[in-house]
Amino acid sequence: MATATMTTIEDTGAGQAPGVSPAPTATAVTPENRRSGGANSNIPNHNPSLSVPKGIIDELLLVCGVIGSNMPDPSNKNRLVPVTDCINWLQDLQRALRRDDDSYRPISLLIGQWRVVPQKLLPLVLGCRYDTPLILTVLKILVILTKPLSDQAKRAGKTAIDIKSKKIPESVLQEQMKLRDNALAQAELLIEYKRIFVHHASHRQSNKKEGGLLSVFVSLLAEPLSKTGSSRTDTDHLTIELVLHLFRNLLSAEPLLKGSSDKSYESAMLHQELIGLFERELVLDILLVIAQEMESRE
């Protein structure tokens, strides 16, 4: 990793204990709070994968803090200027996310708590829309952050827990609740990413000279789809796959539990808004072109 001065992120909550839990609704049990007699101090931490080690937290703070800095710009208050070796730092973030546990995703949840996507990654996409290597690297990170829940997480989130049962040890009940809270936090974060894309300010700007956020990713498909047969390279196929994965991930984000009618309606409306955005940004037309191409091969 490149060397740089430690920089904190806005509203990161830096300085938390080494066993900080990435799930907004769950508190990790660490050696520190067990010794201090805090809540659930008698409950062993059966799943260390629910927390992020301090070394990784420090690494993430450094990486996320140096990839770009806000610069005064009267025309765009969210303008983020990348550092010279920004793509190297982004690749460090990508590698860290690849080490994340697929069932619990504590690193992804921590990145969500720090609001790295709306405050760092998406401003980079808009500010560097013509830097294809950088955009592709951000795209790979977004695909990881938005991927659907694992089957294990879905089961944990839907588990009915009988907290009044005296047949189940307290430690087991506490562990089940932690796993459920973790799964629900993952689902809520995926919906939040969906909401961020749908309601991004760049899609609402009138008379904009350049397209909105989604158009940057759609434009990545122009060159690969202009080629056919053997002229399409492995890089072209990878680009198409990454963009389609991002679209798939955003579409699949939905509440893990069926809550009130208001929440169900809100989720359905958000989904329809995303489809409407896809239509305006020609995503549906592109999907039709790809489908026709696949059909012609058969």
Task: Annotate the secondary structure layout.
Elements (H helix, E strand, L loop, with lengths): L30 H5 L18 H13 L1 E3 L9 E3 L3 H13 L7 H8 L2 H12 L4 H15 L4 H7 L12 H29 L14 H7 L2 H5 L7 H19 L8 H20 L2 H15 L1
Helix pairs in contact: 2-3, 3-6, 5-6, 6-11, 7-8, 8-12
Subcellular location: Nucleus
Protein name: Timeless N-terminal domain-containing protein
Keywords: Cell cycle, Nucleus
Question: Explain this structure to me?
Answer:
It is found in: Nucleus. This is Timeless N-terminal domain-containing protein. One of its GO terms (cellular component) is replication fork protection complex. This protein is mainly alpha-helical and 298 residues long. It has one domain. 56% of the residues lie in helices and 2% in strands. The chain has 13 helices and two strands; from the N terminus they run H-H-E-E-H-H-H-H-H-H-H-H-H-H-H. It has a two-stranded antiparallel sheet. Helix 2 packs antiparallel against helix 3, helix 5 packs antiparallel against helix 6 and helix 6 (132-146) packs parallel to helix 11 (234-252). Residues 2-45 have low confidence and may be disordered.
